[in-house]
Design brief:
It contains 3 helices and 4 strands. By secondary structure, it is α+β, with helices and mostly antiparallel strands. The protein has a domain of 52 residues. The strands form 2 sheets. The chain has a two-stranded antiparallel ribbon with strand order 1-2. It is elongated. One of its GO terms (biological process) is mRNA splicing, via spliceosome. This is Zinc finger CCHC-type and RNA-binding motif-containing protein 1. Keywords: Metal-binding, RNA-binding, Zinc, Zinc-finger. GO terms for molecular function: RNA binding; zinc ion binding.
Length: 141
Amino acid sequence: MKDKDTRKSKGVAFILFLDKDSAQNCTRAINNKQLFGRVIKASIAIDNGRAFDKSQCYDCGESGHLSYACPKNMLGERDEEEGEDPALDSLSQAIAFQQAKTEEEQNRWRPSPGGPSASDDSRRPRIKKSTYFSDEEELSD
């Protein structure tokens, strides 16, 4: 949600739980806790009547599962979407990752201190000149 005047985020989030017990336990555990210097207020939303019931499967109407895991789905269960890399969840890990990537790029383009090495040349196939004229090139072993 954004503030109408400043268009900045109000810091509000809505979380959908599969069952009431999980929602109530989370609300009790998180309400009035401090996180990143801000006090979190958690409460169970009051139904305004506009949202349809999300506790039942959209495809078959049974409770206990949602449509992506419906056993009656003719196409079978869908794979869960791949999320972001969990190694990049925190800011410090993201910074470390970016620094390593930058260093790797710099090392790739920086010439080695001894100049080109002979070992690099041995890996590349060399074209040997032939006394016989042909359109095709022969590679040396």
